[in-house]
């Protein structure tokens, strides 16, 4: 598959796609993997990481339950966008991140059409993560037209 997304993983029932931010100005899947191992987890808790340059990296395999949201891990996919307080408006994601996020969401919605897209804060009142306005983001997503099949840039 040209996108590089593994296809043998449609085993888990998925009803939510949940967006997070890293609360850091830098990072990638390997760095977050280290942070999460330092917390005693066996690997990165997110399924995808969107780097500042727009590169989409795979984290935990989709077939495996993630570790990113209290109470909803079993049936959700976790996406982490690298960034922090800057994220008060959707536009503050880099243009590359925004484009990659839309393409990734589009792809995941094709795989799991009934899955709903949420920001972490919508499922946990104590969080502001991903510090993006979900209403605005979903409005953007509704208008999104994919340019090609390539979701994962390697
Ligand atoms: Zn979060």
Summary, kept brief:
This protein is an alpha/beta fold and 154 residues long. The chain has helices at residues 29-38, 95-111, 120-123, 134-143; strands at residues 16-21, 48-50, 56-58, 76-81, 116-119.
What does this structure look like?
This protein is of the alpha/beta class. It has one domain: Lysozyme-like, CATH 3.40.80.10. Helices cover 27% and strands 14% of the residues. The protein has helices spanning 29-38, 95-111, 120-123, 134-143, and strands spanning 16-21, 48-50, 56-58, 76-81, 116-119. A 5-stranded mixed sheet has the order 3-2-4-1-5. A hairpin with a 5-residue loop joins strand 2 (48-50) and strand 3 (56-58). The mean pLDDT is 87. The structure holds zinc ion. Zinc ion binds next to loops. Residues 20, 120, 127, 129 line the site of zinc ion.
